[in-house]
DNA sequence: GCCAACGTTGGC
DNA sequence: GCCAACGTTGGC
């Protein structure tokens, strides 16, 4: 069982959108960074826990929790010319990008704000608190998860 | 909207 | 394979 943080822009798709999906499940598509892709393809496993992190919005921070409900498969949007995530160099025989499915578990009553995460002494190595770290998929240690989950649960 | 910090691209 | 130019990310 591993722990992750997935970034999203809630104006496009946030924790509430996930909650309202049929089956409360959604493909986590559109990841177009190789390091993040490698995490998705190779290391994110069924049943892993995921912090849903809202970026580029009023309330930047960890907004809720989801669970991985399907392991990596080729991201369909890479083959769709209509998609903003279309990649003309990707083919079904040689997919370049992958996605997983995530299922809603919990929306926190209050988003655990980035400034509060930064103020947590034990959480200094997490990607979102490190300057210039822009990965959209990043690992979270169990220690970090426990501390942040407790803080977010109030 | 600004801008620093990255990642990617493409000419050589 | 170098590296400058360019595009994107993301907090503020």
TrEMBL record:
Domain of life: Bacteria
Cross-referenced CDD domains: EVE (cd21133)
Protein name: EVE domain-containing protein
Annotated coiled-coil segments of the chain: none
Domain EVE, residue spans: 2-149
Gene3D superfamilies: ph1033 like domains
PANTHER family: THYMOCYTE NUCLEAR PROTEIN 1
Pfam families: EVE
